[in-house]
Write a structure and sequence with these properties.
By secondary structure, this protein is mainly α. The protein has one domain. The chain has 7 helices and 3 strands, in the order H-H-E-E-E-H-H-H-H-H. A 3-stranded mixed beta sheet has the order 1-3-2. The protein is globular and about 40 Å long. The chain starts with a helix and ends in an 11-residue tail after the last helix.
């Protein structure tokens, strides 16, 4: 039997499993800088990061966003960062229109939201998922519009 054929049986092939999410390094650096410029601490380690399905969290009432070292970190920062925006910049009020949110949610998002999110928190979570899917330029534009007055960027010293 040829060696190439034998290797195909020895090396496990992940069938039906999604590929691990990869973080776009430039998007990550840009997003992290945008939040840090607003006085937001973006931290990578938190005791809850050991939870299997947890990729990050916003520490409510603070200027801290946790992005665990797994998954697509730039998407997680967009999502959890938007929870910070909802709390500190928007006072809990919706930012996107219902149509914008509905059109950006995947079938899986709809199932997840229905199964694990309370009715009271549905809008906040759905909007954060919609924001996480925006292109980087659009997200940064929305961040600037939503937080321009309440959490303005601080000029870095030269």
């Amino acid at each position: 039997m040829p060696a190439a054929v034998l290797l195909a049986f020895i090396l496990p092939i992940p069938l039906g499993r999604p590929a691990p999410a990869r973080t776009d390094p430039q998007a990550w650096l840009t997003l992290e800088a945008a939040f840090r410029a607003r006085g937001v601490a973006v931290v990578a380690h938190h005791p809850r990061c050991s939870e299997a399905g947890l990729f990050g969290l916003y520490v409510r009432g603070s200027r801290t966003v946790v992005v665990c070292p797994k998954g697509d970190r730039s998407e997680t920062l967009r999502h959890e960062g938007w929870h910070l925006v909802q709390s500190l910049c928007l006072g809990g009020k919706p930012w996107l229109s219902p149509q914008q949110v509905q059109t950006s949610l995947s079938r899986q998002d709809r199932r997840d939201l229905q199964q694990v999110v309370s009715v009271e928190r549905w809008w906040r979570e759905a909007e954060a998922r919609a924001m996480a899917r925006m292109t980087l330029p659009n997200y940064l534009g929305e961040l600037n519009r939503a937080c321009g007055e309440r959490l303005p960027p601080v000029a870095s010293p030269m």
